[in-house]
Amino acid sequence: MAATSASSMEVKRVHKVYSDRGQAAEDLYKGVFCRQPDKIEEVLRVYPEFSEFVDAERSGDFAKVKEELARFPDLCKAFLASRVMIIEQLTGEKDLDVFKVSRDMITKMHVKCPSQAHNGDTHMHYASSHGQLGFLEWLSTKNGNVHILNKKGETPLHLANSSRIACMLLKLGAKVDALDIANLSPFFVAVLSNRFDVAQDLLDAGSKSLNVLFHGATLMHFAARYNKPRAIEFLFACGLDLNASDAFGFTPLDVACERKSSYAIILLKQLGGKERVR
Predict the structure, then answer these.
(1) Is the pLDDT of residue 108 over 50?
(2) pLDDT at 58
(3) pTM for the model
(4) Which of 85, 146, 169, 198 has the greatest number of C-beta atoms within 10 Å?
(5) How far is CA 79 from CA 26, 41, 202, 244, 274, in A?
């Protein structure tokens, strides 16, 4: 009996707290932004019509988000107020299109130091690595530096996660073959991260990294070492020598065998890879 009573009191409390749709909308956005599923569920128990907005916001479907906000003006007001407040706190600016900055992007920026994270990543790095083209465009109008380095010596171009981001950075003057402190180029990083659209853009922009030796080895050796069959296919299609020797005389197949990179071994042999003559 006591349990039933307590449950009834909880339901009444929820209805009382969220009797105002505007307040419910504000708390709902905070729940989504702060990733508090209990808070979201609490609000949706009273206003299930907000569920499609939550799904759209979680998935980053901004077209659907706008559609849902048009249906619920009070939700829109709370959404915009919360997001604009956060953006203003982080950037000091008020003219950024709030729909061009994803929830994940804001969360990461909010958790880190506003201008620079512990690893030295700046807003430019975050925008590049998270595919935030709109945010990157806006930063470029605020003197965003495409050459800025994080603690690894990486430029935003090293972290470009899509062709559109890479092309934007190159258009803004990013150095196509900038090296980080490990002497790795954006092309090297893109290939071993399976971002082949970015890698192709870099080649098209004049990158000379395809045939460059990294620590005495070709990129094919690294793809074999880290068991990256898709990278091997891409490099082979680009014309990189399948049987080149590294500084120690090892071929990519030697490296793959030594590292027990099973997928790389199979593919290299299929493509004609050979072990060194002993």
Answers:
(1) no
(2) 67
(3) 0.62
(4) 169
(5) 7, 17, 38, 57, 59
